[in-house]
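Could you help me review a protein record that somebody else here produced? My question to you is simply how this chain folds and whether the tokens agree. Thanks in advance; the entry in question is below:
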Amino acid sequence: MGYLWAAFDPVRKLPFFFYEKGRGHKGPLALLDDFVGTLQCDGYSAYETLDRKVSGIRLPGCMAHIRRKFFEAKGNDEKWAQQALLYTLLSACKQHGVNPEAWLTDVLNRMYKHPVNRLQELLPQNWKPAEQPEPEKEKAEDA
């Protein structure tokens, strides 16, 4: 059984979906091992384990249940992990007022030639559409 964990950074307005094969504390522990701050979560017991194992986490209590059972089929882990990444990127588009279709079209057309050390420029929160070449000015007719 797999689970989709949802996270949101309210300061930078960045969503993040995280897929794990199980619903135990090991997946979130790996993700949040260096985290320092407040972790708003539901009352699931895995968070209490995180609270004990990660010294910088503070749990303010349950505001809403955001944990969702993601799927029950075996053998689809890679597919669902990819889906989680897509949800993350499309949610980031929404949070930053970016048209997801325009963003995805532009990024897919540019990423093969974009420098790998600057891929963060193509993330929705940093994205600027590629500059379109200006149409040629109509040539004045020789009279």
Notes: Helices lie at 26-32, 45-53, 77-95, 100-110. The longest strand covers residues 2-9. The chain has a mean pLDDT of 78.
